[in-house]
Specification:
OB fold (Dihydrolipoamide Acetyltransferase, E2P), Aminopeptidase, alpha/beta, eleven-stranded mixed beta sheet, four-stranded antiparallel beta sheet, binds zinc ion
């Protein structure tokens, strides 16, 4: 690290706005969010280094690059969060209340949310777009780097450019992550997990990812800002695993549950039927099929014990593009027990028995992700309806 780098760090540590660099030319805006979880300082470090690299290139930069800190208080204390997980409280309702100044933050992390939303809203108001939101994280277990994204064709199309595994469907399992909310607004938004919390490689990967993103969004000429080494670094770190995966299982840790992951699992590790994965209240939990383990929990804070993922065959990926582009979902309401939640036709209400019969897979193919609504029904939301595809028509990756 050079002297210049370390100066940047002391200046900007623990600020909401790590940096904001406006280029001399029109173009998109990337909003990097770092330290959404306070025990994941790698993104903050990488952003400080990135700022020093982009600042001298301002006169050639098309658009703007912003770096925001998520949970400043938690970053300062080195904990995932202080009172409540900042990345689980972004419901549409909550955001509306904050914007209408009707929300009173009772917890410290909620106060962070109010400030962070304000910083995001300021950028949305001042820049012309298109907007890209990228949330920088690390994991408690050792891992290859990967992207997590809500399944819209727009998100898929953008993220498939990275030499990284892409995990779809997290929105069915997590309540209120910031990026699901940003997706509701129709922007490209996704998370990048660089590696293990304390692994110094995570900083390099966050930086390489950020540099490559600036290139993929068409903001700097490659002769001025070469990214070959960045792409190479990510490709090597991901060990050639560059497929699309979907989450099909989550072990949710109940309040007060005594959960322990069986030691030694690494992210993406293959697991086979009958293999012991964890213990809950002293009883073993076994894999019920062959799959890969995803985000095994090896820290005390957090409510997801582990997930299981499987690779999505490329024929399904292609088929779903075809089906979604032809609005085949309009036929779903012909099925018994399936009807529109409202006249705007953005969400379906589906009888749970029907969903069981016509496997959830079909709804997934058509762009729907389900959440439990009540005991007997799912609410299935169409990810395509909100996408602002037209805002990205001129993007280099759309061609
Ligand atoms: Zn995180």
């Amino acid at each position: 690290m050079t002297l210049e780098d370390s100066l940047v760090e002391t200046k900007t540590d623990h600020q909401r706005k790590l940096f904001s660099i406006q280029g001399d030319h029109d173009g998109p805006s990337i909003i990097f969010i770092a330290g959404m979880h306070g025990n994941e300082p790698s993104g903050v470090r990488a952003m400080q280094r990135l700022a020093g690299m982009i600042e001298p290139l301002k006169s050639s930069l098309k658009g703007a690059v912003h770096g925001l800190t998520g949970n400043i208080g938690a970053v300062q204390s080195g904990e995932r969060y202080l009172d409540t997980d900042l990345n689980r409280i972004w419901s549409v309702q909550r955001v509306a209340e904050i914007r209408q100044k009707k929300f009173v933050a009772l917890e410290r992390d909620e106060a962070e949310q109010v400030e962070l939303l304000q910083a995001i809203d300021e950028i949305l108001a001042s820049d012309s777009g298109p907007f890209y939101f990228m949330d920088l994280h690390t994991t408690s277990s050792d891992t290859i780097p990967f992207v997590v994204v809500n399944d819209s064709l727009l998100n898929r199309r953008y993220t498939r450019q990275y030499p990284l595994p892409i995990i779809l469907g997290i929105e069915e399992y997590l309540d209120g992550p910031l990026l699901s909310y940003i997706n509701e607004l129709g922007y490209v938004a996704f998370g990048f997990e660089a590696g293990q919390h304390e692994d110094p490689n995570s900083i390099d990967r966050h930086l390489a990812f950020a540099r490559l993103s600036i290139h993929l969004c068409g903001m700097l000429d490659e002769r001025l800002f070469p990214v070959r080494e960045d792409a190479q670094l990510l490709q090597e770190a991901s060990k050639g695993v560059t497929h699309f995966f979907e989450i099909f299982y989550r072990h949710r840790i109940a309040q007060g549950e005594n959960f322990a992951m069986y030691p030694g699992y690494v992210n993406f590790q293959r697991i086979s039927l009958g293999q012991q994965l964890a213990t809950s209240e002293g009883r073993p939990i076994y894999a019920d099929r062959n799959a890969r383990v995803f985000m095994p929990l090896y820290q005390t804070q957090g409510s997801e014990g582990f997930f299981a993922i499987r690779r999505i065959p490329s024929i399904f990926l292609k088929l779903s593009i075809l089906l979604r582009n032809s609005n085949a979902d309009r036929l779903l309401t012909w099925l018994p027990g399936v009807y529109w939640a409202s006249a705007s036709r953005e969400a379906l209400i589906v009888d749970r028995n029907v969903a069981r019969f016509f496997a959830k897979q079909i709804f997934h193919l058509l762009g729907y992700r389900s959440r439990r609504r009540d005991r007997d029904h799912y609410i299935m939301k169409n990810r395509e309806a909100a996408s602002r595809d037209e805002a990205y028509t001129d993007a280099p990756w759309m061609g």
